[in-house]
Design brief:
- By secondary structure, the protein is mainly α.
- The chain contains 7 helices and 5 strands, in the order E-H-H-E-H-H-E-H-H-E-H-E.
Length: 126
């Protein structure tokens, strides 16, 4: 696995000190795998103040800005699936671009979007 994408639920699992998520993150970084966090995911999870666990996890991640291609792909995914959840659509578009699985607390919504655009994606539930 060259990389993996974290959604907002993954960062919130870190903040809750979810032992399964933290163990997965530590295993990934020990294997020199830098998870991808789309910047909109960070914006959705970050609430200011000390968020020590999220900050610790982010040190081992690559925060990716969104671009025109991801924006367009996410828009198509929203239209096809009938959802307005742009963050989930961006997470999915990012995973498709990088051919990466997603760590998520919301596998149902991501599966719905993936099915609507005809892609298969591997999901790890937090």
């Amino acid at each position: 696995m060259p990389t993996i994408v974290y959604d907002t639920g993954a960062l919130l699992a870190a903040e809750r000190r979810n032992p399964d998520f933290l163990a997965l993150h530590d295993e990934l970084t020990a294997a020199r795998i830098r998870p991808i966090v789309p910047v909109v995911v960070l914006a959705q999870a970050w609430r200011g103040g000390p968020q020590h666990q999220i900050s610790r996890v982010l040190k081992g991640c690559d925060i990716l800005p969104d671009d025109q291609h991801i924006g367009r792909a996410a828009g198509v995914a929203c239209a096809a699936s009938g959802t307005a959840d742009v963050v989930d659509a961006i997470v999915l578009a990012t995973a498709v671009r990088h051919q990466a699985p997603i760590v998520t607390s919301d596998p149902g919504d991501l599966t719905h979007i993936a099915d609507a655009i005809g892609v298969k994606i591997r999901l790890y539930a937090t």
